[in-house]
Amino acid sequence: MSTAIDMMKMKVMRGIMSIGPAPKIEVGELKSKIGYLTAMELFRDLTMDEMKEVDRATVMFTSPPGRIIYTPGETKEVLFLLKKGAVQIYKMSSEGRKLVITKVGPMSFFGEMGCIGQGMYNTFAETVEESLVCTMSRSDVERLLLSKPKIALRILEVMGKRMIEAEQQLEEMAFKSVIPRLAALLIREAEGDEVKGLTHQDIADHLGGYRETVTNALNELKRDGIITLARKTVVIKDHKRLERAAEAE
Asked: Which ranges constitute the DSSP H helices of the chain?
């Protein structure tokens, strides 16, 4: 295989062969599935009887970090509901450069384009930490959307938000240099004064750039006294200057 996408598909096949049968779910987890589904914003208007129907229509599985759930062109007609963990949605260039489109957190969903669009996915989805996921088939999703238009509207709202974020990301890539894009990413990802859990390569994947370029940009912000660096942690020392850096061209 000559392209990065072909190599990723080989990784998926090796992963499937090594994973074997679906992991067993503990009794306590099975009992909690309907509670988790009920707590999701997506299903907030459903009655308990309706939630029991959703519960019967979903299958829950655990996934270790680094498992690719689907690849571009796959035709699984499934909507994924994330109970806990985190999943990256990204694209890969033929040269092997990765661009993270979004990171999906707990109590959200992904894979909606394959389920309600053309029946196939146009991105990779990969777990970045141990995750607990429920799946719902396209036919079950369609029945739910036809009977509950408010759920369709909520899915469209999330899809619209993700499209706006993707357009903003593309605009920044086209018109801004690395440091403004890096500064904007740090502001978005910060919890208080810290951005945790991202390596230099992770940041490069979010920016669609190279690790070496990101390392140089981080070091420049560090030299200017705007940030300090630790293992998988960026500490913001001067928020106002970082905001000004994000606004630059």
From this structure: 4-19, 27-39, 48-57, 112-116, 138-147, 149-175, 178-189, 200-207, 211-223, 239-247
Measure the CA–CA gap between 153 and 231, rounded to whole angstroms.
Answer: 41
The domain boundary residue, chosen from 172, 187, 219: 172
Q: Which amino acid makes up residue 176?
A: K
How many C-beta neighbours within 10 Å does residue 212 have? 10
* CATH assignment at residue 220: 1.10.10.10
Residue 95 pLDDT class (50, 70, 90 cuts): confident
* pLDDT one-digit tens code per residue, 30-79: 446 788 888 898 998 888 888 888 999 999 999 999 999 999 888 777 89
- Say if CB 247 and CB 180 are below 8 A apart: yes
Residues 21 and 86 occupy one common structural domain: yes
